[in-house]
């Protein structure tokens, strides 16, 4: 079975992936889920291509633990590489099986047959047979062999075209979200969150809460997990607000404002590891080093987390918008002490998801209530304050980049030194678990110090290795375990700050040599795809006309290959800086290898750029003694329409290369390009994100 | 404390017997089954819940329904349906303006209010009209293009 992806090795049965349905469609299963990134449309294109079907002959079944394949989490831009690869092989194999069966029935040789829109043609003439006529004779319970060669990319008719998103029409006309689901006799629910592991509810004035609710509600308490349940959502919400105001907790977590800073995080005890080249810095090497920071960040989905659940006859069914239904099932089963086969999880689309947010936790909340109230469908939703206050954060980070230079002023030895809490703490990974498990009498053991290893894309150290030609490159990673908040994955993970730092130092090194930043990079960059991407972005932006800068306008560039193994992106940013930074234009070139859906990729990249502008210039989580203090959109502002620059994205033709994940490739380069553009505009470098008005003013005063 | 009253939504009268303090958003979603207006923050800060009240784009998440007797409420469902899309919805589809789509109901409603009072908006006008609406996915560039495109289509239809 050489060549089979893990997705297929873990789910070898063909019928987990493909099923011929009575309505003359083909149902394609995937463990990957739609998060607003358009993945289901792209996967449908891959299946339709291999099976010679129209796109509307495919229906996607995604994130279904009862019937579909398990593929872990939808994360780190792996979907097209993993799920797409599996679907391509399975579809090619099933097409071949069906074709052979049809040949048998038609007494023809398989070579005489072809398929158009699911109908078999014999020497170009339609026959009476189609997929559905022979489907009953196919053994799809068999395991994939992976031996049938998929089509070659130069024969593609659907892959590579901008098929419109399958889910958008519903979302433009008022439906399409888990939040809209209604089950018969459904009750609404909101929770009272435990303020930290180990906190105990000492008192709750239930009479006050009921009075504030104004309608009939139940108060469910399971150890230190408390929720308000009732038919009237307005009342349930009012109860939760009142309870948060009046609940008395003992041993609640107390946070301090300084703990929200990268500086505080970097000063904590760490688990250290060295990755890459051994340290051997010859004496007398001349070099340079710079230190960069960024604060904690929120995912801040516009849609609060939501889940539905019902418990009947010992079986639990959960509907969730989390990133992986199979892991969710296992984690819920574990917390509830149910056998996993008694738990079924279905994915239903939710709001934009940019990493590990509160979705999984809300699903456990709903499951706990469903089990406490058997036969009673529960719809649980988080409040905005809960979303900001309890979803996992993206860790504050400090990165110092050191370069030792050769005689020509090129880096010869490079260290990226990182201080950060973990970026990969999804439930089930490294001892991490779902939030409400902390509230149970039997608490899970404390999670262990763990971050995603670099071989699997890395966590805080993601993209810590520069892609330039440097003899010795290494990462020195100080993993800080003891931070007072949960941290986990946000789009790009550590790559955002690592690329920001690496690309800033490259600009500084170019300036020392009196060279242009683009030509300096090219002089030490042999990867042809990286070169082409960089040159393309520079050309798009008219880089050759770039002036000396320093007059409040700047042009900066940033380049990276996401995870050092996925899509390449180069970004040029144009900024105007007076008191604040204003990004006026972004030019971005992307090499994503074989492109499944060009417009879908451009849309993803645009979104990534907009989000990265927001991280770089605006966003910052704060703490106060009560916990996270940035609990609404006023205290946690994000980019608005008035801050959106002109964004130009172009894809580089690279169809001969395999398809690469693209949804996170532009974030680091965008942050870097803005950082370098601001330095170009001001003649001084701001090393701390976000580059707020206050930081600009302070830097200008100190210059 | 509740007293039956009439609320007009998308041109239809609904007689309601619920507390006058109930937020309009809850009434739309839970009492009238119109799920298009969305709960994002409940704080009048994100715009996901926006509806038209007598033609103006307004937040519905904290608006007490009792204040709306005799007023006309229009939700995204009142703009168009999958079978008969409003030119704005059609333009959003053509531009593939939206990633997760959760913000879109509110944004469509804000854009409708703009185009009703200003059929010939500039990009700056559109930005100003949408600045109360957050989109976390970064679909802004496409949304701006789509609104301008819909404006052009509507002008042609009138001409
Ligand atoms: S839900 Fe009304 S403004 Fe956010
Ligand atoms: S498309 Fe997701 S919030 Fe706008």
How many β strands of chain B by DSSP? 5
Approximately how much helix is present in the residues of chain B?
Answer: 25-40%
CATH homologous superfamily designation of the largest domain in chain B: Beta-grasp domain
SSE ordering of chain B = EEHEEEHHHHH
Strand content of chain B: 5-15%
Class derived from helix and strand content of chain A: alpha+beta
The DSSP helix count of chain A reads: 17
Domain module count of chain A: 3
Low-confidence segments of chain A, ≥5 residues, pLDDT <50? none
The chain pair forming the largest interface, with residue counts per chain, is: A-B, 61 and 57 residues
Mean pLDDT of chain A: 95
Strand count, sense and barrel status of the largest sheet of chain B are: 5 strands, mixed
Low-pLDDT runs of 5+ residues of chain B are none
CATH topology of the largest domain in chain A, anyone? Aldehyde Oxidoreductase, domain 4
Q: Which class of secondary structure composition applies to the elements of chain B?
A: alpha+beta
Ligands, ions, cofactors: FE2/S2 (inorganic) cluster
CATH architecture annotation of the largest domain in chain A: 2-Layer Sandwich
Shape of chain A: globular
Topology, pairings included?
The complex is a heterodimer of chains A (703) and B (159).
Chain A: H1 6-10, E1 18-20, E2 26-30, H2 39-51, E3 58-62, H3 79-106, E4 113-116, E5 119-122, E6 125-130, H4 131-134, H5 168-172, E7 187-192, E8 200-203, H6 206-213, E9 218-222, E10 225-230, H7 233-246, E11 248-250, H8 262-266, E12 270-276, E13 287-294, E14 306-312, E15 315-320, H9 325-336, E16 343-347, H10 359-372, E17 378-381, H11 384-390, E18 397-405, E19 411-420, E20 472-480, H12 495-512, H13 517-522, H14 528-540, E21 553-561, E22 568-577, E23 581-591, H15 598-617, E24 623-624, E25 627-628, E26 646-651, H16 667-682, H17 693-702
Parallel strand pairs in A: 2-3, 7-17, 15-16, 19-20, 23-26
Antiparallel strand pairs in A: 1-2, 4-5, 5-6, 7-10, 8-11, 9-10, 12-20, 13-18, 14-15, 14-17, 18-19, 21-22, 22-23, 24-25
Helix pairs in contact in A: 2-3, 6-7, 9-10, 12-16, 15-16
Chain B: E1 5-9, E2 12-16, H1 24-31, E3 51-53, E4 56-58, E5 72-74, H2 76-79, H3 87-94, H4 104-117, H5 123-130, H6 140-158
Parallel strand pairs in B: 1-5
Antiparallel strand pairs in B: 1-2, 3-4, 3-5
Helix pairs in contact in B: 3-6, 4-5
Bound molecules: FE2/S2 (inorganic) cluster (FES) (2 copies).
């Amino acid at each position: 079975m050489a060549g089979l992806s893990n997705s297929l090795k873990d789910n070898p049965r063909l019928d987990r992936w493909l099923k011929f349905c009575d309505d003359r469609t083909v149902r394609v299963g995937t463990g990957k889920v739609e998060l607003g990134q358009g993945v289901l449309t792209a996967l449908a294109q891959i299946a339709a291509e291999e099976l010679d079907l129209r796109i509307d002959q495919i229906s996607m079944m995604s994130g279904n633990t009862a019937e579909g394949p398990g593929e872990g989490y939808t994360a780190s831009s792996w979907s097209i590489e993993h799920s797409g690869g599996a679907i391509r092989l399975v579809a090619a194999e099933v097409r071949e099986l069906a074709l052979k069966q049809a040949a048998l029935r038609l007494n023809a040789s398989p070579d005489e047959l072809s398929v158009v829109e699911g109908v078999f043609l014999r020497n170009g003439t339609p026959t009476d047979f189609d997929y559905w006529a022979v489907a009953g004779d196919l053994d799809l319970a068999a395991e994939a062999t992976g031996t049938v060669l998929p089509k070659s990319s130069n024969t593609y008719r659907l892959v590579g075209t901008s098929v419109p998103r399958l889910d958008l029409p519903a979302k433009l006309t008022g439906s399409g979200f888990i939040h809209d689901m209604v089950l018969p006799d459904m009750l609404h629910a909101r929770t009272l969150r435990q303020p930290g592991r180990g906190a105990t509810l000492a008192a709750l004035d239930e009479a006050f809460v009921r009075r504030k609710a104004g309608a009939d509600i139940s108060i469910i308490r399971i150890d230190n997990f408390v929720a308000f349940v009732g038919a009237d959502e307005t009342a349930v919400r009012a109860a939760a607000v009142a309870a948060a105001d009046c609940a008395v907790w003992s041993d609640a977590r107390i946070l301090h404002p300084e703990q929200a800073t990268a500086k505080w995080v970097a000063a904590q005890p760490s688990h250290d590891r060295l990755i890459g080249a051994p340290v051997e810095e010859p004496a007398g090497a001349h070099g340079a080093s710079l230190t960069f920071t960024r604060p904690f960040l929120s995912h801040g989905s516009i849609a609060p987390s939501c889940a539905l659940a019902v418990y009947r006859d010992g079986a639990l069914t959960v509907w969730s918008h989390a990133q992986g239904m199979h892991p969710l099932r296992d984690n819920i089963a574990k917390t509830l002490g149910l056998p996993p086969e008694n738990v079924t999880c279905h994915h239903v689309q939710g709001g934009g998801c940019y990493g590990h947010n509160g979705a999984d936790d809300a699903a456990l909340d709903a499951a706990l209530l469903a089990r406490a109230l058997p036969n009673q469908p529960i719809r649980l939703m988080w409040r905005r304050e809960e979303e900001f206050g309890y979803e996992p954060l993206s860790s504050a980070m400090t990165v110092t980049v050191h370069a030792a230079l050769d005689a020509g002023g090129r880096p010869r030895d490079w260290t990226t030194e990182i201080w950060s809490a973990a970026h990969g703490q999804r439930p089930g990974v490294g001892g991490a678990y779902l939030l409400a498990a902390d509230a149970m009498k039997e608490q899970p053991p404390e999670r262990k110090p763990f971050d995603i290893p670099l071989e699997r894309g890395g966590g805080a150290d993601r993209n810590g290795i520069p892609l330039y030609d440097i003899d010795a490159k290494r990462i020195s990673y100080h993993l800080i375990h003891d931070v007072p908040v949960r941290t986990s994955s946000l789009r790009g993970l550590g790559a955002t700050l690592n690329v920001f730092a690496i690309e800033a130092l490259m600009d500084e090194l170019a300036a020392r040599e009196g060279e242009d930043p683009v030509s300096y990079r090219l002089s030490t960059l042999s990867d042809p795809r990286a070169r082409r991407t960089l040159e393309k972005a520079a050309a798009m932006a008219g880089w050759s006309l770039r002036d000396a800068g320093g007059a409040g306008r700047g042009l900066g560039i940033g380049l990276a290959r996401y995870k050092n193994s996925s899509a390449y992106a180069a970004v040029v940013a144009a900024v105007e800086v007076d008191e604040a930074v204003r990004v006026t234009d972004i030019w971005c070139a992307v090499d994503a290898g074989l492109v499944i859906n060009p417009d879908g990729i451009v849309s993803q990249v645009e979104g990534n750029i907009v989000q990265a502008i927001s991280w770089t210039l605006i966003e910052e989580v704060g703490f106060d003694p009560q916990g996270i203090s940035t609990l609404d959109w006023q205290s946690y502002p994000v980019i608005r329409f008035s801050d959106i620059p002109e964004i130009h994205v172009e894809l580089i033709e690279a169809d001969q290369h395999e398809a690469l994940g693209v949804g996170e490739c532009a974030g680091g380069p965008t942050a870097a390009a803005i950082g370098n553009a601001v330095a170009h505009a001001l003649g001084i470098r701001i090393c701390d994100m976000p580059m707020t008005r206050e930081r600009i003013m302070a830097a200008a005063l100190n210059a | 404390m509740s007293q039956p009253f009439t609320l007009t939504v998308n041109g239809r009268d609904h007689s309601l017997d619920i507390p006058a303090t109930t937020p309009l958003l809850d009434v739309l979603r839970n009492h009238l089954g119109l799920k298009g207006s969305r709960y994002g923050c409940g704080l009048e800060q994100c715009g996901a819940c926006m509806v038209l009240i007598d033609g103006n784009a307004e937040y519905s998440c904290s608006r007490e329904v009792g204040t709306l007797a005799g007023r006309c409420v229009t939700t995204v469902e009142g703009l168009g349906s999958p079978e008969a899309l409003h030119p704005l919805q059609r333009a959003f589809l053509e531009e593939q303006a939206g990633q997760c789509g959760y913000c879109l109901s509110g944004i469509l409603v804000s854009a409708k209010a703009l185009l009703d009072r200003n059929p010939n908006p500039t990009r700056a006008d559109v930005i100003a009209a949408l600045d109360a609406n957050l989109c976390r996915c970064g679909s802004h560039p496409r949304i701006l293009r789509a609104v301008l495109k819909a404006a052009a289509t509507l002008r042609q239809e009138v001409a």
